[in-house]
Every structure is written in C-alpha cells, then in structure tokens.
Amino acid sequence: MRILFIGAVLFSRRALEQVIAAGAQVAGVCTLAQSVFNADHCDLSSVAQAHDIPWLHADDINAAATLEWIRAQRPDIIFCFGWSKLLKSDLLNLAPMGVVGFHPAALPANRGRHPIIWALALGLTRTASTFFFMDEGADSGDILSQRPVTIGDSDDAAALYEKVTQTALAQIAEFLPQLIAGHYPRVKQDHSLANAWRRRGAADGKVDWRMPARGIHNLVRALARPYVGAHFVASGAEIKLWRAELVTGLPANLEPGKVVAWAGGPVVKCGEDAIRLLETAPDFAPAPGSYL
Length: 292
What we know:
With 292 residues, the chain is an alpha/beta fold. It has 7 helices and 14 strands. Helix 4 links the parallel strand 4 and strand 5.
C-alpha cells in the first residue's frame, strides 16, 4: 500500500515518523515551507529527505501541478494530518482508497477550527482523537478510528496536544495493518449530532476581567504554547499571559480588574474569584490596589 502523506504541523511530523517506523511505504510527502495559519507549523521535508522519500512544498494542495505530482507518486491512499485548507474533489478522488484525515475531537461533535483550543477554553473534560475518511465537507466523513482523551484541570494546550498525539500514534499503529490488509472499519457519522467550531480571532484571546476566574484560567490554558498566548492591555501595552492559577475566597465586593495582592505574582480580581498571573511577557508587576 503506497501512502501519500500531507501535513505541515508538529503533529504531522510525529505521525509521519510513526508511519515510517511501522514499515509502511510512504510514496511521497506534501508539506509547507512556512505557514501563516499554524502556530505549530512544521516543514516535513527534512523527514522525507532523511528517508529518501520524494517531497513537495505544496502552497496550493489543489493546484493542477500539485495534483500531477501526487498522481505521479501512484498512491493507493492519502493521509492528510495537519492541513488547514480543505481538499477539493479532484484530490479526494485521486487515490483508490481515498483520503484519511485527522481531527482531535469526538466527531461528529466539535467539527471545525481550533479543536484543542476550543476544548480547553470551554472547560471540556473530554475530547477525542479521530481518524476519518475525508469527503467534501468539513470533518464529516466516515470514521476509521476514534479514541477518547481525558482533559485534566491542569492541562494546558501543550499537555493536551501531547495527550492527543500519543493517543493518535497508538491508533495509527492499530489501523495501518488493517488498511494494508484491506479490512478496516468505516463508521458513518450521525450528522444530527454535529456542531462546528468557528475560527478564532485575536479578540477571542483577550482577557476580560469581568469573566469568572475559571473562564480566564481556561482561556490561558487554551492559548498556551505552542499557540499564541492569551493577552490583556495595561497602560496601553499588550501583555501576554502564559500561565495563571485560580484564587478563591476573596470578598465579593471587590471590583473586577483590581490587583488585590502580590503572592507569587499579581492576584487580580475577576467577575467571580480571582486569578494569579504566574508568567507574562513582558514581565508585569503592577502595584496592589491598582486596576487593569
């Protein structure tokens, strides 16, 4: 079974290395030299070169020249793990076995953009790692493999990214032999249970001190590295907030945005409870009693 691999993020690299380590035949790799969409961008050309695999920087994965190159690799199946743009029908129908995609959510729930970020920002306690056969919809094709992933209270984006990755690598080791043998599951999604998360923007990462402290804590976890970081504005300057923790037991009559104490970092009153700022960029040391 000849595999054409498409990907351009850190997860893509881990998955490609897993596929190669399993002894599967990777016929070619399409990747990106750079990306304005993905904070976790990763150019896979070095992995391909190390294993003498043909590779292509494909700025437009659906372009005629890209399709011609992919077709020349004679793939039986395409793996598309970590690619921000939709594949069009010509590419979806190019390989006899179709295209397997990946989405770190419990499909059919939570289709769409930024699934790790939204799961943390919304305070979910469970998500999933899902491989599916891609169609012309967004994350709507038949499921090949799905496993649950638990989200802990202290998990940030990096921790959840790694949990999902480890789960996904185990799934790849399981379904690769099934695909090669030609005996593998295809479970149709129940579209009546689907929702789609929207693309986030810069405004979604701005801290509003009127929010409950837990909501701010979740936002900080969601946008932690490898992502862009939550932020707030103080004295006209943008401050990145990389780590924070909840503080409870404060009087209810303190206004949101007030710096109520310094205890291992500034403690800021929120709409409910408070948040301790543990890591900011640049360093931020407001005086107790001041307001943000």
